[in-house]
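Example record

The entry below shows one chain as it appears in the dataset: sequence first, then structure tokens.
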Amino acid sequence: MTPRQFVRVAVTAAAALAAVVLGGMVISSTRVRAQEEDVENSKIQIGFKIAPVPLNLSGKNRELVGLGSYIVNARVDCNGCHTAGPANPAVPAEYAAFAPGGVPEFGQPLKVNPATYLGGGRDFGPLFGLPHLFTRNLTPDKTGLPEGGHTFAEFVQIMRSGTDFDHLHPTCTGAPNGTCIVAPFDGALLQVMPWPFYAQMTDHDLRAIYEYLSAIPCIENPAPAPSILHNDCK
């Protein structure tokens, strides 16, 4: 074999090997994507199965709604904080999110109370000298936008930065008056919501949560109008 023929054979072999390696990488990448899609589809299906309220899918991205339900109901338990009464008279107020006969801690099958689902109003105050702090209504208002009519951009800012667009408890500029926040707490931020942890979520997950919250039924918050906590459905 001449040197030129040897070079040709070596180049051909190298090209063949590269093709095999590249083909394997493509196949492996395809399998990974397929597995990821299977996991995503499984979460979507579970999300629809466990949604405790009827969903309005008109004009919504169905896959995002299902994934959002999975995150809200299976991973985060938003309803555990964002719900209040009417309290179940048979159990402590901490279990107000459950319908009668549906408290898992009592050995009962889980059953969420749809009448108060994500309607907000739970009182977390006073804590550490702070005023009464109420969780907000996450259901859509009359505009169809969730969480009191917030846009998606505002929702992302809430989840990533803890911004309190309601300005419900400003930082005290003088003596505490029962409504302001005492330093070093920052009244511009939500004090109870664990937004520093939710801030790590992907944009896709946040979009899914927002889409799901847009699909659930509107609930008139227990606080009467013109309270800033009131959610107007009409």
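Notes for this example: The chain has one domain: 51-215. The mean pLDDT is 84.
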